[in-house]
Amino acid sequence: MAKLNDNYLKLPGSYLFSTVARKVREYQEAHPDKKVIKLSIGDVTQPLAPAIIESLHAAVDEMGKAETFRGYAPDLGYEFLRDVIAKKDYQERGCNVSADEIFVSDGAKSDAANIQEIFSLDNKIAVGDPVYPVYVDSNVMAGRTGTYDKVKETWSDVIYMPCLAENNFVPEIPKEIPDLIYLCFPNNPTGATIKKAQLQEWVDYANKVGAVIIYDAAYEAYISEEGVPHSIYECEGARTCAIELRSFSKNAGFTGVRLGFTVVPKDLKIDGTPLHGLWARRHGTKYNGAPYIIQRAGEAVYSEAGQAQLKAQVAYYMKNAKYIYNGLKEAGYTVSGGVNAPYVWLRTPGNMTSWEFFDYLLDKANVVGTPGSGFGPSGEHYFRVNAFGSYENTVEAIDRIKAL
Ligand SMILES: Cc1ncc(COP(=O)(O)O)c(C=O)c1O
Fold this sequence. Notes:
Elements: H1 7-10, H2 16-30, E1 37-38, H3 50-63, H4 79-90, E2 102-105, H5 108-114, E3 125-129, H6 134-142, E4 148-149, E5 154-155, E6 158-162, E7 180-184, H7 196-209, E8 212-216, E9 242-247, H8 249-252, E10 260-263, E11 269-270, E12 273-274, H9 275-286, H10 292-301, H11 304-330, E13 334-337, E14 343-347, H12 354-365, E15 367-368, E16 370-371, E17 382-386, H13 391-402
Parallel strand pairs: 1-15, 3-6, 3-7, 7-8, 8-9
Antiparallel strand pairs: 2-10, 4-5, 9-10, 11-12, 13-14, 14-17, 16-17
Helix pairs in contact: 3-10, 4-10, 5-6, 11-13
This protein binds pyridoxal-5'-phosphate.
Pyridoxal-5'-phosphate binds near residues 42, 216 and 255.
């Protein structure tokens, strides 16, 4: 008789965005005259840039002609895309990453969830808290996280590294030694960044204890300040301890198009075995490659026109972030993030819980954000506001909050 993977049964329901959606729906049904503004789910709203649309059209036309038609893509991605990624994202920034260390995929979520497969179940993971939920949940599904404490909302075999105002939302090296360390900067949900010297400490630590860092740089394009690393490979020694995840979702609006990549340096080895070969094997067996048309669209992200258009797109969202940050600050809230990331993280007033503040904002200002507690226990009493809406809606939402 077939048996379930009962690790799936251990997963607590991910109620965050479904509860947000239900509460908004109920509110709107009860108050049909109110205009509710949503600054909650981290999805982009601006259309694809013209350079990308042009490239998509051209690639579609190629697929309609026998001489330019393409079937299965190479497992690890087309060379035209991997070459330009290696050059523009890494070599031009002084990072030693070559095209054959890049694995093109359909996005960072799948890679973030799948990468744990190449590690033994005996590994202990460490995660920032609060955090993008995929890192923990994928390890739960694999059976690596022990038992769940419903009251504390934590897993017995996960090392949680609290990211709070006291540490500028950057985790400290934990007392217990982890085997796999998930770091995400710029961070979702806090919008925090890590300075190069701090990241170097993590790299040195991982090399010392033999841990692997899985570095999620999905929001790299939003970095505006000097001294904030765009890639972990800016740190010395990262090639022997770090895997980096990247996405085209937020820098180029590909949330519905789907494209990302993972870097596995050939120098990264466990007991002499390169992880590059294992990830290549996994990719080759379980994945048939991102579509040709989409990889061509990805290539256009790096063209001169694409770069200029996307810079403007990121600037549009960051103008929203600035308005949110300044407006909430003027309104008396304690805020952070929003400078190198499209997320502003605020401390709820009067020690309200994250959900109490959610209800308050929905009811009084008809504005929807995301309760911080949904990202982990240390997110309690915090609230995430995102900058991915239209400028007009963002201004209206913040002005309503200021008027409360
Ligand atoms: C930290 C982080 N990593 C990865 C992703 C997923 O990216 P993708 O759309 O490429 O799957 C997100 C999406 O919100 C994210 O916040």
